[in-house]
Structures are given as C-alpha cells and as structure tokens.
# Entry
Amino acid sequence: MILKIEGAINRYYVQTLCMVFFPGATFSESEQAGPDVPEVTVSLIREGDTVRSVATMRLGDKETRGEGASDIGPERSAARAEKIAVGRAVFAAGKAFFSYTPPWGILTGVRPAKVASELIAKGNGIRNSRAILRDEYFLNPRKAALAVSVASTEMKLTHKLPSDLCSVYIAIPFCPSRCAYCSFVSYTSGKLLSLIDEYLLELYRDIDDIFATIRELGLRVATVYIGGGTPTVLDPHQMSALLACIGKNVDPSTLLEFTVEAGRPDTITREKLDAIRMGGAGRISVNPQTLSEEVLRSIGRHHTVEEFYRAFSLAREAEIGAINVDMIAGLPEDTFRIFSDSLDKVMALAPENITVHTFCVKRSAALRQKDGIYALGSADAAKSVEYSQMRTKLAGYRPYYMYRQKNTVGNLENVGYALPGTEGLYNIFMMEELHSIFAVGAGAVTKLVRRESPAAANALIERIFMPKYPYEYLRDAARLREGDPSAGLKSKRERILSFFQGERE
# Structure
C-alpha cells in the first residue's frame, strides 16, 4: 500500500486506520504505484481551535474522498482533536469506497474500553458515554455498549485496590506442537524441549531476583500468572518445583490471584493438576478453541474434542477454583453453526470464565493469509461474536476485559466473560496499565507503570524485554540480571529501581 501524509500526522496511527479497510496491508517506502496497489492520501490543517483533515482512497480507477473535523477545547487536547479529525476523514473515505461500516468506528487501539473509562470518569455516565462512542467515534451501538460495560466492570473491580500493588508474569515458552495460527514465542522441537530443565534453573534465579526487587520497592504482589506457550508441558515434578520457587517468594496475605494457563488439553493430567492446586494456584485455562474435530485439524491442534472433555473433567475433580475456556471465532473451516454449537457445549460445562477471541494471523504464524481470510464484515465471524455476547449474557456471565488486534477477521474483538465474582484480575491489570507487571523468562516483557501522584490520570510506562528465544535467554539471562559494567549494561534490578526513583525522591 502507498500512504502519503501531508501535515503533522502520526504515520503509525494512519496505518492502523488504513488496515481497518485493507486488512493485512503492508507499508513500504519503496512501493510502486500500480492498478492493484491501493493508495491513501491524508492531509491535516489547523484553523484556530478547529482541526480539519481530508483523506482520499484510490485503487485502480476508483477513488473516494472523506473529510473530518474536530475542535480543541477543555475536554479535548490538540493531539486528541487531530486523531479524531484524521480518523473521521479516513473512516468516511473507506466507508464510501467499500460500502462497509467498521464496527469499531475510528477506535483502532488495543484497549477500546480505555476510551469508555475516560468518558465515564469525566462524569458522562453510562448512557452518555455510549452515545459519545456511537456518535463521535462511529462505533456500532452494540460495540459502544460492550465497551462501556467492560469499562464499568473494570472500574468497579479495581477502584478500591491499594496503589502499592503489582503483578508477576512467568513465561514457559514451550509447546508439544505449534498451532498453525500461533504467533506467540513458543518452541516445539525435541532439541528445544530438551532445554526445559536448564531453562527452569535459570528461571528460578530470575524469580528470586525479581521478587527481591519488588520487596525492595515496597510493593506487594497481587497476582501471579504463569503463561506460555503451554505451561503444562512441564511434568508434575517440574511443575511442583516451579510453584515451590514462586511460593517461597509470595506473601499469601496480599496475593489476590494465582493462575496457571494450562492451555492444551493433551498436556493436562491429574498429577499436574494436583501439583498446581497444592502449589497454591486457584485458576487455570483449558483451551480447546473449538469443539469441531474438522476445525481442530485445519488449525493444527494436536488434540481431540474428547481430550478437552477429559481435561476439563480432571480440572473439576482436582477442585481448581476457577476454570477458563478459550474459544476462537472465525477460524478457517469454521462457520457460525460450528462455533455456536461449540460454545453451547462449552457453556453446558459451566466454566467460571469463557474468553472469546477473534481469529487473527500474524506474520510469524505458519498459517498465512488466504483469499478472503480477512474479509471485511465476515458474516460468520460477526454472527459468532454477537452470539457469544448474547449467549453468555443470558447465562449470567458479564464481559470484564477486552482487547483488540490488527488484522482480525471482520475487525472484531477479544472478550473475557466471567460469572460475577470470578473475574481474572491479572487480565484487567494487563489491559488497563493500572500497575507494574514484572515478567521473567524468555520472551517476557516487564511493563513498569508509575504515576507522579496516586490521582494522576496518565502514567509513565517503560518496558524491559527479555531475550526472545530460550537459547538466547540461557545465554544472556545472567548478564541481563547482573549487568555488565564493562559494556555499560545496567542490571534489570538497576533499571527497575532507576525507573521508580522519581517516585521516591
């Protein structure tokens, strides 16, 4: 795609807007014009306190034009007004070009509930916040209602929490096999799986070190989340040892939640579940994605529907407190009938949480883009997502966290539903940047969050990335943990303390 910018416009933001209408598009400075190459031009000017934008879309002989404007004022900064004006212009051009209205309007960010939260916090109330999202950001009324519902639930669950809390994420980036749609950092070959014992020894050192740093900062751990990959690729002894390492560092008086993302049903055994429960974890995920054997085969899931039922039953017998089940709408070979049937069968099991993702393929996934895979307004995916919202609501679940990704089928969302009182706090903390998430392991990203005052609306954010691959982690973890003065490399502890120094001065 060719993208031309005229004026002081954030190029990345315009790219995300373009991808709403051209899913899977790539942007290259060397792209050459041609009849099959889309071209988008966006301009921006400021006239006093009014910002105006014009966008044109061209492909072959077809061209459309859209305009947008926004006023700067007490409730809207210049930067926000510019984004809204540009968003409206691109939205209008794209809507005219494709005769298609994106369900999320001009909201392109990962966290649509954040905008809803800001509107509610400013005193707009539930009804007016929905109206603003619908009329000013062009959200489909159902999406506006969903965003406000999620924001309202998040605010209720978190508004009384102390300001000195944090969370810890622990990465187990190994899987028994790789699903065709997967873009997570996870490793499946026999050679890489043979690194697990060595990986765990290094991980224990990092766990001890990060908890020591947390104590030095005077913070308290609210949630611990073990993710992957597939953490239950560990055998029962490895799982017990990992949980024991965490347990000796955690203060149970402050811990609100401890989750193990068990994941693949074919890796779950009663012995592993007993180790998880005895290790203090009260939440797990058992993730089939679909209950269709045909769809499972098409996406490279090396387990059966029966194995899911077996794993779920074992989790119930092990008396794990809360079970989440992941589903994916819009998978290849999937249909609305298949998805709705799968969801109905999952809900018959009454898991405490159900997370409905929308199919998304990233560049690192084995399953590449196929004709129509990102079709705008994908009817089956949209019907599946709407059905999940209606069906869960009728069964007493409520949406409590949500995020979006680029290049999802139908430009749709991922939503977590929970029976009241079983919401996963870690998921909310990750989405809404309410406090720091300290992460250890290969591919893990520590997200430091600091506010100049407890009441400050905007937070300072800094991320610390660990080596992506297990063999890189094993090679570099000690150096990153301890620092390298000769190379001017600060230790992870020093970087964290330096970030928080401004708060302690």
Q: What stands out?
A: Confidence is low (pLDDT under 50) at residues 364-374.
